[in-house]
Write a structure and sequence with these properties.
With about 775 residues, the protein is α+β, with helices and mostly antiparallel strands. The chain has 21 helices and 22 strands. Among the domains are: about 160 residues, Arp2/3 complex 21 kDa subunit ARPC3 (Orthogonal Bundle), CATH 1.10.1760.20; about 110 residues, Beta-Lactamase, CATH 3.30.450; about 80 residues, Helix Hairpins (Orthogonal Bundle); about 160 residues, Histidine kinase-like ATPase, C-terminal domain (Heat Shock Protein 90). The strands form six sheets. Strands 20-21-19-18-16-22 form a six-stranded mixed beta sheet. Strands 4-3-9-8-5 form a five-stranded antiparallel beta sheet, with helices on both faces. A five-stranded antiparallel beta sheet has the order 11-10-14-13-12.
């Protein structure tokens, strides 16, 4: 596959991985299993590191926006490149495991050093991504072991997956089979325990919110009752012209109100215009008198002017002796429709805050009371800062819109863009409304406890998965040994049988194996026994045939010899016009004699009775003599001869027979004529090489071994008109083999065939004074 196609497939698989990542599987709350890495590793294993890196880049692109940094995305790219680079040496699981063994250094340099992420969060992120990657590699490895998948992807499978052992297949399948149920069951149990913890947290929050709500409601009722009663007393004490009593009287009444109402921090009587006529206490913290302070800008002053019942203000920033947020109750002083002023009492918010702190002491809970406009009435986590705070536009305000009184929910105060575990960053809250005011009491606590519980569940699950993996691997090794040992026994027996050991059997090896393997071994033994019998019958028939051929050849040689002699006698006695006919008869007799001799040689080879009479001679001269004689007798062919001395121990007659077969074949299978090339060389290792080449009809690639068989000539249509019985090459190969050499036949580029003979020489090559001689005729 070309590089461009690999890049295209890598990008396409990366897009599929990006889509698959959108459907994350939740194992535990905040712990998700992404299946996109399976596609990334598929690209890496089948297409190499470039495609794996591109698939990782596309598949993990969303993490840049999700996590707020590029290091998780880069990690996916590096994983694809690393596994792709090792795919020809290691299986996907082993290659991915090697990557994650080296990954802690990467996480320390990027997450911890460059992003300043806490070490614990870095550890959790690294472990989660490693588990996700290893599980993806295991899933991929098991999928690529399925026969239907391998059938379609065979050309792309690297060697470690193309040549997979039974033990590896069993180990991968059993490990995946053990892990998946554990993840399902352990995840379900972890989620159930998390849900229980969440319910308990919500109940605690709602209980605290109800307590605070009841206390606020009680304080407001007391304060409203106090200012209403004082306002009614002052209404009854108005002068006929509607004037309030003097300052001393008013201060005494106010002192009584603040003394007997612990929820009131201060109080004053205001004129219709909003000016304080009397105050309790008399001065502020700096000793300045408070009477005469103008509060006409306060919304409650305008509100109470229109009211006939006590009113409660929203939170505002105090300045009349109380610094910081303030809430007041105010009641109008009226006689009929005459408005003479009002009585105001400020709630003691510090006391309420202190009570709220006491309620959540030694817990991570936080209590906030929010008025109808979103202003913070009190916050158990803050001191009186002298500033107004509001929840408007905060994540809490958005979350409160989704729940009603007595409801619970979660929100993130600051979006967590650092780790994949978000459970700890969630704030769980319960909300209870204060009736008639629209105030909301919010009690919240962080998910730290839940996060710790999830982490304990996750690492416990990983520990269980690890034990299951070890157990699965041990079981796989055990069962693979049980299965592989008999299979190896059958394989070894088959190899011995193929090598000629007909007594090879496999039943003993598989005696204690499972039933199917025992049956396999028994079936193999029956097959081996039947093959042995058949081979014995074939060999017996072959011996009988060779004996028959030997007898027939000997019997044919006698009349052929007599016929040849009679033809020679007749040739000397008949008139000249009949000599040519007798020559043709003589040629046909010679041809039949050669065929009979070939049959005799083939039969002797079958009976292993072909003798060799070796003597020291120059094979080059034999090549020259045979090639000259045969090619010169063919008017359509020319000879290109190049010979050099080839001195060795050879049977001269048999080597002449071999060379006669090769050169005559080159002539016979070049029916239209052409050049017959014959040359000799001395190869390294003191080995003689004889080559006979032609430009004839040639041969097919798969014909070579077939043509060296006995009585084999091939099945090509071009051979129909060419005579022969198919034993010449068979006899030639056996003669060369008995000389310790080898012979080969191959197609020639551009048409034709090349026969090559290699034979060992004795002594040193004699190149010094016998240069190769080249002739053409």
């Amino acid at each position: 596959m070309s590089t461009l196609r690999r890049i295209g497939w890598g990008l396409g698989l990366g897009l599929i991985g990006w889509v698959v990542n959108l459907a994350a599987l939740e194992v535990l709350p905040g712990v998700h299993l992404l299946l996109g890495p399976v596609v990334v590793l598929l690209a890496a294993v089948l297409l190499g590191p470039v495609a794996g890196g591109l698939a990782g880049a596309v598949s993990g692109a969303g993490t840049i926006w999700l996590w707020g940094h590029p290091w998780g995305w880069l990690n996916m790219i590096l994983e694809g490149v690393f596994v792709g680079a090792l795919r020809r040496r290691l299986t996907p699981l082993v290659a991915d495991a090697c990557y994650w063994v080296l990954s802690p250094l990467y996480f320390l340099l990027t997450y911890r050093v460059m992003e300043d992420i806490p070490l614990e969060a870095t550890l959790v992120a690294g472990v989660k991504q490693a588990v996700n990657g290893l599980l993806a590699a295991l899933i991929l490895q098991v999928v690529l072991l399925l026969p239907s998948v391998r059938r379609h992807l065979r050309a792309l499978l690297p060697l470690p997956l193309a040549d997979v052992s039974i033990g590896r297949a069993f180990g991968s399948a059993l490990t995946l089979g053990a892990i998946i149920p554990l993840l399902v069951v352990g995840g379900a149990e972890g989620r159930a325990r998390y849900a229980t913890e969440v319910r308990q947290v919500n109940e605690e929050n709602l209980h605290a919110a109800r307590v605070v709500s009841n206390e606020i409601e009680s304080s407001l009722q007391h304060s409203r009752h106090g200012v209403f009663r004082l306002a009614r007393t002052l209404s009854a004490g108005l002068s006929p012209d509607g004037v309030l009593p003097g300052q001393n009287f008013l201060e005494g009444e106010l002192d009584a109100l603040t003394s007997y109402s612990p929820e009131v921090v201060n109080a004053y009587v205001g004129s219709p215009e909003g000016v304080a006529l009397a105050f309790s206490p008399r001065t502020d913290a700096a000793g300045r008198p408070l009477a005469g302070t103008d509060f006409s800008d306060r919304p409650y002053v305008r509100q109470v002017r229109q009211a006939h019942e006590p009113v409660v203000s929203d939170v505002f920033l105090g300045r009349g002796g109380v610094q910081g947020p303030l809430v007041v109750t105010a009641a109008p002083i009226r006689r009929g429709e005459h408005y003479a002023g009002y009585v105001m009492a400020a709630l003691d918010l510090p006391r309420l805050r202190q009570n709220a702190r006491t309620l959540v002491r030694d817990t991570p809970r936080r209590i906030r009371v929010v008025d109808a406009r979103g202003g913070v009435v009190l916050d158990s986590a803050e001191e009186g800062t002298g500033q107004m705070r509001s929840t408007v536009g905060t994540p809490l305000a958005s979350a409160l819109k989704q729940v009603g009184s007595g409801g619970t929910g979660t929100y993130e105060n600051e979006l967590d863009t650092v780790t994949l575990v978000r459970v700890g960053s969630l704030l769980h809250f319960g909300m209870v409304e204060v009736p008639e005011l629209g105030w909301r009491v919010v009690v919240e606590q962080p998910g730290t406890r839940l996060q710790q519980d999830v982490e304990r569940s996750y690492f416990a699950l990983l520990g269980t998965v690890g034990l299951a993996t070890v157990a699965a691997v041990l079981l796989a090794l055990t069962f693979s040994r049980i299965i592989v040992s008999p299979v190896h026994g059958v394989s070894h027996a088959a190899a011995r049988l193929a090598a000629g050991e007909r007594t090879a059997r496999a039943a003993e090896v598989a005696e204690d194996s499972p039933r199917e393997l025992s049956q396999l071994a028994e079936t193999f033994d029956r097959m081996a026994w039947q093959l042995s019998r058949q081979m014995e019958a074939v060999e017996r028939t072959s011996r009988e045939k060779d004996a028959f051929l030997s007898i027939a050849s000997h019997e044919l040689k006698t009349p052929l010899t007599a016929l040849k002699a009679q033809v020679q006698i007749l040739r000397r006695k008949v008139p000249g016009e009949h000599v040519e006919r007798l020559d043709k008869v003589s040629q046909q007799v010679d041809r039949v004699t050669r065929l009979v001799n070939q049959l005799l040689d083939a039969s002797q080879l079958g009976l292993e009775q072909l003798p060799l009479e070796r003597a020291r001679l120059d094979l080059g001269e034999v090549v020259r003599r045979v090639a000259d004689a045969l090619v010169s007798a063919s008017p359509l062919h020319t000879l290109e001869l190049e010979v050099c001395p080839l001195v060795g121990e050879f049977d001269e007659l048999r080597m002449e027979q071999v060379l006669h077969n090769l050169v005559s074949n080159a002539i016979k299978y070049s029916p239209t004529g052409g050049t017959i090339e014959v040359y000799t060389r001395v190869q390294p290792g003191n080995e003689a090489e004889v080559v006979v080449a032609d430009r004839g009809i040639g041969l097919r690639v798969h014909d070579e071994e077939q043509l060296f068989g006995r009585f084999e000539r091939g099945d090509r249509r071009e051979l129909t008109g060419i005579s022969g019985i198919g034993v010449g090459l068979y006899v030639s190969r056996e003669i060369i083999r008995r000389h310790g050499g080898r012979i080969s036949l191959r197609p020639r580029e551009g048409g034709g065939a090349v026969a090559t003979v290699r034979l060992p020489l004795s002594g040193k090559p004699e190149h010094d004074h016998h240069a190769p001689h080249r002739t053409e005729h």
